[in-house]
Design brief:
Number of domains of chain C: 1
Helix content of chain C: 25-40%
Number of helices of chain C: 8
Radius of gyration of chain A: 21 Å
Strand content of chain C: 25-35%
Radius of gyration of chain C: 23 Å
Oligomer: heterotrimer
Distance between the termini of chain A: 35 Å
Chains: A mainly beta, B alpha+beta, C alpha+beta
Strand order of the largest sheet of chain C: 3-2-6-7-9-10-11
Number of helices of chain A: 2
Number of strands of chain A: 18
Largest sheet of chain A: 7 strands, mixed
Strand content of chain A: over 45%
Largest sheet of chain C: 7 strands, mixed
Number of domains of chain A: 2
Order of helices and strands of chain A: EHEEEEEHEEEEEEEEEEEE
Chain lengths: 231, 304, 279
């Protein structure tokens, strides 16, 4: 018996939209039909590339790319695009990291007749983009954007008779004047969706972890004896 | 007219049976995969009690032979679900979710958690059945052809007459499973989870436990235990794992072919050996057995 | 009526069976039934009846007869003796009611309840010395009389008698009848059935005193030498039932329900045993 723990998820104390890691993801609306190419970067190095076809005839409203998975592909660096995706032109490109240290950013370029043009850079999120953070460590976190901060309190789920189901995601907006709201309280594993009214980036740091409670669950099952069992 | 007649009363037969019964100590193991969980067992079985009733139709009725499970270890392998976060809908619509957050798994156990339950002494069951008496002449396979009877005795490979209890039918009844088995399972589950999570930071353990919910209820759901754990356990051991069939087979095989209840060498010794004197041995022929209400009667002839 | 109505274990042996058992004992333990001096051991061809023995007896070097000292010649102070042999060549047993052979009148037929009858054929011989050899012995004895008498009187004869010079064995055979009863013998838990001679009769030997003396000789030989070594173990009579099941079996006590134990009735020997459960 072996337990597998996503240690990066468990140990992560900082989430950045500009360097995606586990528990953070970015949704970008494609907006226009066309052919796009994407570069997956890690720091200054390109670690993968992909092509994206967006068209009104495609049913999928979302294409989800695991940057950690394609970054490990042996096809990285090949001149021809090996990862191909399709999405409805009104749909979204969802970028996330399933495991590992993270630190990825992505540029998406439209392929014009004569030249390509960068239409999306995950280091600078704009209106319409979404940054989704899932905080799991109970305690006090601080969300930061250039010249603004917000406090996020993450509560540990209460022990109960039922399995914990997180509430729907909470929302926070990045505006020119800062975060709205400036304080947020969520449960661990409850998502936070950051919308953008201004071009920005978001970083969330754990500032004060909450003390751990007793790990034992409360026994709620009782077994009653039934006499006279006969086959 | 037979040369020799030996009769044993029902009480004597019971005493012989008790001696045979007390020599029974067998082990067995088994297991199976049942989808979300697997189960296996290791069992040691002894016999106690049991009442012999000689029947007029040349059979022996055995009643209420207690099966003692000592030990009985039941091992359950359970797939704990992966614990993942995310996967929630970001942009819902009347037609479904337009944008959904990716699902990220933070914890899984590969392949199972293992719960060991010591059920020794907690399960009571009984065997009843009828036996006929089988008469066999045993020639030791290690005895070379042409070896004399005295040489065979010295080499411990003599021929033998043997009487076995041959089962006609055997029925095993599950009488009771102790009430405490539920608490034992409860404690074993907690212990297994503690072992699985114990090395993780406290907040992670709390989070995982909260997400999993009450562990015992979760495991109960995985094992498909409803309200009655005794009935569940009876079905698991009896039907799914076939433990009781295995026990019946062990008992039947023991009495029918492994251990005779009466055995003597042929030829049988009449006078002990002395200094420079061989033992005097007499051949026995035509051994036969009759069972009546009162006694078991063995007849034989002295060979020429 | 069940065999075990008044006991836990019952064992019986029919007279046809016991006569087969006797035959096997005679073949496998011939020295129990044949006695003689070393002359007959070394030259079994001189025996009155050829000894039939199981092959294993010869293969393992068992004696076919029990070697005895020569019979002292009276008046020789034990210095000289007769070579002799005594053989029980046939032995038959008849349980009550006697229906295999008839008893002689001297044994008060019919066979009484709880008795068994024996019919034996006994052959015997002494080796009568030849005349020439005897003359040499006479001279030797005269010499010894003058020089060694006082010494022999003080010390007694120290060696077995020297066999008389070889002559021819003078064989004869006689029919012998006996009546016996059976009892248990031996320590508790290891009892055996033993045969105790009640009476013996040799048919038609005259004068009566000679017959009586011979009867005494044979009866004493049977009582001291043969019967004590031919006891029947209970394990045999119960086909080792108690032995294999670790049962402690002891003879059922005599009572109104069990007036005789062991019993001889209906042409068979029967034993009744009670079970004591071992701790």
């Amino acid at each position: 018996m072996k337990a597998r723990v996503n240690t990066c998820a468990v140990q992560q104390s900082c989430l950045q939209s500009s360097a995606l890691g586990v528990l953070g993801s970015i949704a970008h609306p494609v907006g226009r039909p066309g052919e796009y190419s994407g570069r997956v970067m890690h720091g200054k190095s390109q670690v993968a590339e992909f092509s994206l076809h967006a068209g009104p005839d495609v049913d999928a409203t979302q294409v989800t790319i695991d940057l950690a998975r394609i970054a490990g592909s042996p096809l990285v660096g090949q001149p021809y695009k090996a990862h191909k995706y399709s999405v409805n032109s009104d749909g979204y490109l969802m970028l996330f990291v399933s495991e590992g240290l993270g630190g990825f950013w992505v540029q998406l370029s439209s392929q014009g007749t004569y030249r390509s043009r960068v239409v999306f850079d995950s280091r600078r999120l704009k209106s319409g983009d979404l940054f989704i953070a899932t905080l799991i460590r109970p305690g006090t976190h601080q969300a930061k954007m250039p010249r603004a901060v917000a406090a996020i309190r993450v509560r540990a789920p209460e022990a109960s008779d039922k399995a914990f189901q997180p509430p729907p995601p909470a929302g926070m907006t990045c505006t020119k004047t800062g975060f709205v709201p400036k304080r947020l309280e969520v449960y661990a594993t409850q998502g936070i969706v950051f919308g953008f009214e201004t071009t920005s980036r978001v970083q969330i740091d754990l500032t004060k972890p909450a003390p751990a409670r007793s790990a034992k669950s409360r026994r709620s099952a009782r077994w009653r004896g039934r006499p006279d069992i006969r086959r | 007219m037979n040369h020799m007649t030996v009769a044993a009363s029902e009480q004597s037969f019971q005493a012989v049976f008790n001696h045979l019964r007390d020599g029974f100590h067998e082990t067995a193991s088994g297991g199976g995969d049942f989808g979300p969980f697997s189960a296996s067992y290791d069992v040691g079985v002894r016999l106690e009690g049991g009442t012999i009733d000689l029947q007029n139709n040349n059979t022996v009725l055995l009643s209420e032979l207690d099966i003692v499970y000592d030990p009985l270890i039941l091992r359950l392998g359970i797939d704990i679900p992966e614990i993942c976060v995310g996967g929630f809908c970001i942009i819902p619509s009347p037609f479904g979710c337009i944008l959904r957050a990716p699902r990220i798994c933070i914890f899984s156990a590969d392949p199972d958690i293992q719960i060991d339950l010591d059920l020794s002494g907690l399960i009571e069951s009984e065997i009843s059945g009828t036996f006929s008496i089988d008469t066999r002449y045993f020639v030791d396979p290690g005895r070379p052809a042409g070896m004399s009877d005295h040489d065979a005795q010295d080499a411990d490979v003599p021929n033998k007459w043997q009487l076995f209890l041959n089962p006609g039918w055997l029925d095993i009844d599950l009488i009771d499973i102790a009430d405490t088995v539920g608490n034992i399972l409860d404690a074993a589950i907690d212990s297994a989870i503690d072992g699985l999570l114990g090395w993780l930071p406290g907040w992670v353990r709390s989070l995982i436990r909260a997400i999993l919910g009450p562990i015992v209820a979760l495991v109960r759901a995985i094992l498909d235990i409803a309200d009655d754990i005794q009935e569940w356990l009876a079905n698991l051991l009896g039907i799914s794992l076939g433990l009781f069939n295995t026990v019946v087979t062990l008992v039947a095989d023991y009495f029918a072919s492994r251990y005779p209840f009466l055995e003597f060498e042929d030829p049988i010794q009449v006078l002990d050996p002395g200094v420079n004197l061989i033992a005097v041995k007499v051949p026995i022929r035509d051994l036969d057995v009759l069972v009546t209400d009162d006694e078991m009667v063995v007849t034989a002839n002295v060979g020429a | 009526m069940a065999f075990t109505n008044h006991c836990d274990v019952f064992g019986s042996l029919h007279e046809a069976g016991i006569n087969r058992v006797v035959r096997h004992i005679m073949l496998q333990r011939p020295s129990l039934f044949n006695y003689g001096t070393r002359l007959f051991a070394q030259q079994p061809g001189l025996l009155c009846e050829k000894i039939e023995a199981h092959p294993e007896v010869e293969d393992r070097g068992n004696p076919i007869l029990t070697v005895e000292n020569p019979l002292p010649v009276p008046g020789t102070n034990g210095l000289y003796g007769f070579d002799f042999c005594v053989q029980i060549v046939k032995l038959e047993i008849d349980f009550h009611p006697g229906n295999v052979f008839a008893l002689p009148p001297e044994l008060n037929p019919p066979l009484q309840p709880q008795r068994l009858a024996l019919r034996l054929t006994v052959c015997a011989a002494i080796v009568c010395p030849d005349d020439r050899g005897l003359e040499d012995i006479v001279k030797d004895l005269e010499t010894r009389d003058r020089d060694d008498q006082r010494k022999d009187d003080e010390d007694g004869p120290r060696l077995p008698p020297t066999p008389l010079p070889r002559g021819k064995p003078a064989c004869f055979c006689i029919d012998v009848f006996g009546v016996a009863q059976v009892t248990f013998d031996g320590p508790s838990g290891s009892e055996r059935v033993c045969i105790k001679l009640v009476g013996l009769e040799i048919v038609d030997v005259r004068p009566d005193g000679l017959e009586t003396s011979l009867e005494c000789f044979l009866a004493t030989t049977l009582r001291l030498a043969v019967l004590p070594r031919a006891k029947i173990p209970l394990d045999f009579l119960t086909l080792e039932l108690g032995k294999y099941g670790s049962l402690a079996l002891t003879p059922t006590p005599i009572s109104a329900d069990v007036p005789h134990n062991p019993a001889i009735e209906d042409d068979q020997l029967a034993v009744r045993l009670d079970l004591t459960v071992a701790p």
